[in-house]
């Protein structure tokens, strides 16, 4: 009997010890979950369309699951579209606006010329599907771009995550100069890249992590021929340089190659393995492994895909909140993502009445 009670006491003590030891671990997990996302910008929330268009997210996801099956490059194209939208004038869908007689589209500026038409078409197709399902124009074009980018990451094999929603669309595009001032060239080194990112409150961690978007997609010779001509960039792995030379035999070639030679269509950490092997495509990629400020994180991501995925979610959601327009007084929700809403007789800046009613109801918490 005495033996049995000693055993019970010992077992209870062991259980207590286990509980005590596991308490900090549980707290860590909760803290990690809390740190998974950056602070949300004022006016954005994860359930913004819960009442006004509850099916919005599943519509985007289902559409892309089948569209990416038809065209695997669409995922890369949409991931890049969100980046080019957010870096220039904030995530306001300004990249989608077509030229008008008085305003030139951002699409016509050099860095945007290689955005794929399929990405713009997918956004317009989603606009139509969402309008049918929501019973009107409820979801903004900027939110459609953010959701499409998120689902593209997931469909390509990357992490699943939630998107803060509630962005509104710009009334006009950024100027051509503003596009060049916001999007760094692929010939940039880390010092230049950090200078560009600092203007929009992104840091070296964000730079290394977001560059990981180059784990999918393609690039034209013009984007990396500076590394081949007139002389070969000494940081290029010899074998890789020869392969690039086959694709781009002379300056001015118009061919394309994949961004990540290991797994070109899969969203994984192999981009960082490429950099370790001096097989990064752009100067802006390879310099991340040359520069002492960014090299440690490149090395870490090359061996720890989970760490890359977690930081990618954080940095991409952070990027997705750059200078967002929120609240009914800023921007509008475009009925046609490629054009500003026509101004109404009431002179309400092109925001038609039914949308204002829906949005006002959302903001005041009314159930429609
Ligand atoms: C840090 C600075 C960056 C530079 C200098 C840069 C530059 C480029 C260039 C030059 C291309 C190829 C264009 C072409 O020749 O067709 C490209 C493609 C791409 N970029 Fe970036 N990029 C940067 C950051 C990002 C970020 C933050 C993302 C997203 C997280 C991203 C995602 C992509 C994707 C997915 C492609 C392939 C697009 C496709 O296949 O259509 N890039 N980038």
From TrEMBL:
Location of the Plant heme peroxidase family profile domain: 43-341
GO biological process: hydrogen peroxide catabolic process; response to oxidative stress
GO molecular function term, any single one: lactoperoxidase activity
Location in or out of the cell: Secreted
First-listed, main subcellular location of the protein, grouped into a coarse class: secreted
Record's keyword annotation contains Iron: yes
Cofactor(s) needed: Ca(2+); heme b
Function: Removal of H(2)O(2), oxidation of toxic reductants, biosynthesis and degradation of lignin, suberization, auxin catabolism, response to environmental stresses such as wounding, pathogen attack and oxidative stress.
Disulfide bonds: 53-134, 86-91, 141-337, 221-248
Signal peptide stretch: 1-27
Keyword annotations from UniProtKB, A to Z: Calcium, Disulfide bond, Glycoprotein, Heme, Hydrogen peroxide, Iron, Metal-binding, Oxidoreductase, Peroxidase, Secreted, Signal
Swiss-Prot/TrEMBL catalytic activity: 2 a phenolic donor + H2O2 = 2 a phenolic radical donor + 2 H2O
Chain sites annotated for binding Ca(2+) 2: 215, 260, 263, 268
Enzyme class: oxidoreductase
Species of provenance: Digitaria exilis
Residues that hold heme b according to the record: 214
GO cellular component, one term: extracellular region
Similarity remark: Belongs to the peroxidase family. Ascorbate peroxidase subfamily.
Name this protein carries in UniProt: Peroxidase
Positions marked as site (Transition state stabilizer): 80
Residue sites binding Ca(2+) 1 per the record: 85, 88, 90, 92, 94, 106
Residues that, per the record, bind substrate: 184
EC number of the protein: 1.11.1.7
Catalytic site: 84 (proton acceptor)
PANTHER family given in the database record: PEROXIDASE 16-RELATED, PTHR31517
InterPro entries, per database record: Haem_peroxidase (IPR002016), Haem_peroxidase_sf (IPR010255), Peroxidase_pln (IPR000823), Peroxidases_AS (IPR019794), Peroxidases_heam-ligand_BS (IPR019793), Secretory_peroxidase (IPR033905)
Keyword Transmembrane: no
């Amino acid at each position: 009997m005495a033996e049995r009670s000693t055993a019970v006491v010992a077992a209870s003590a062991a259980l207590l010890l286990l509980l005590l030891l596991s308490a900090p671990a549980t707290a860590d997990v909760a803290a990690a979950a809390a740190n998974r996302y950056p602070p949300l910008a004022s006016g954005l929330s994860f359930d913004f369309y819960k009442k006004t268009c509850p099916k919005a997210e599943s519509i985007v996801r289902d559409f892309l699951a089948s569209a990416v099956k038809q065209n695997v490059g669409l995922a890369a194209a949409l991931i890049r579209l969100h980046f080019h939208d957010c870096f220039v004038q904030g995530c306001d869908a300004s990249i989608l606006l077509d030229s008008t007689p008085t305003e030139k589209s951002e699409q016509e500026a050099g860095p945007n010329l290689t955005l794929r038409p399929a990405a713009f078409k997918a956004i317009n197709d989603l606009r139509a599907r969402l309008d049918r399902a929501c019973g009107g124009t409820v979801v903004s074009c900027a939110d459609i771009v953010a959701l499409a980018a998120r689902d593209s990451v997931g469909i390509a094999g990357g992490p699943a995550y939630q998107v803060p929603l509630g962005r509104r669309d710009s009334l006009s595009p950024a100027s051509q100069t503003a596009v060049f001032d916001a999007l760094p060239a692929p010939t940039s080194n880390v010092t230049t890249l950090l200078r560009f990112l600092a203007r929009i409150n992104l840091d070296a961690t964000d730079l290394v992590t977001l560059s990981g978007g180059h784990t999918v997609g393609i690039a034209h010779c013009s984007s990396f021929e500076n590394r081949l001509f007139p002389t070969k960039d000494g940081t290029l792995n010899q074998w890789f340089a020869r392969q690039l030379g086959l694709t781009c035999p002379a300056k001015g070639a118009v061919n394309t190659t994949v961004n990540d030679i290991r797994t070109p269509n899969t969203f994984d950490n192999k981009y960082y393995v490429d950099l370790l092997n001096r097989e990064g495509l752009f100067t802006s990629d390879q310099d991340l492994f040359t520069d002492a400020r960014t090299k440690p994180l490149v090395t870490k991501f090359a061996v720890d895909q989970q760490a890359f995925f977690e930081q990618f979610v954080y940095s991409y959601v952070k990027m997705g909140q750059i200078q967002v327009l929120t609240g009914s007084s800023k921007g509008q929700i475009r009925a046609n993502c490629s054009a500003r809403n026509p101004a109404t007789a009431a002179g309400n800046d092109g925001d038609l009445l039914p949308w204002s009613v829906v949005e006002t109801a959302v903001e005041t918490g009314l159930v429609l």
